[in-house]
Amino acid sequence: MPAIYALYVINKSGGLIYNKEFVIMASNNLNDTLRLASIWHSLHAIAAQLSPAPGCTGIELLHADTFDLHCFQTLTGTKFLMVVEPNTPDVDILLKDTIYDLYCDFVLKNPFYEVEMPIRCELFDLNLFQTINNVHRRWGLIH
């Protein structure tokens, strides 16, 4: 059954600026989450440099036995990572069209938000959770 586990946002310098878990996962503490962000940022940059494909911008999808990790990198270098159940459909569309739109509307347009700093926007959190709950409800995970 498809499920969205977590969302991470990494700034262009590789710093974790946002993380939320939507489903209780294994005991990920803050240090593990920070480590994930910095390692992903480095691997993403290395993959972009080593790729034989012209125009490659880095790793977009990592398949594992128990999860898939999808990455969407914006033109400014901000990365959105979403950890989902393997073979969850339309995650790239969710990241690019919905989550990124919420980020633009409620974070970037917030006059009190400083770019590249940790995201602490209540309206972003509220709309993000509502979106994820709607997706889970559509998939039959929430009644």
TrEMBL record:
Its main location: endoplasmic reticulum. GO terms for biological process: endoplasmic reticulum to Golgi vesicle-mediated transport. The keyword Endoplasmic reticulum applies. InterPro entries: Longin-like_dom_sf, TRAPPC. CDD domains: TRAPPC4_synbindin (cd14856). It holds the Pfam family Sybindin. It is found in: Endoplasmic reticulum; Golgi apparatus, cis-Golgi network; Golgi apparatus. Keywords: Endoplasmic reticulum, ER-Golgi transport, Golgi apparatus, Transport. GO terms for cellular component: endoplasmic reticulum; Golgi apparatus; TRAPP complex. Belongs to the TRAPP small subunits family. TRAPPC4 subfamily. Part of the multisubunit transport protein particle (TRAPP) complex. This is Trafficking protein particle complex subunit.
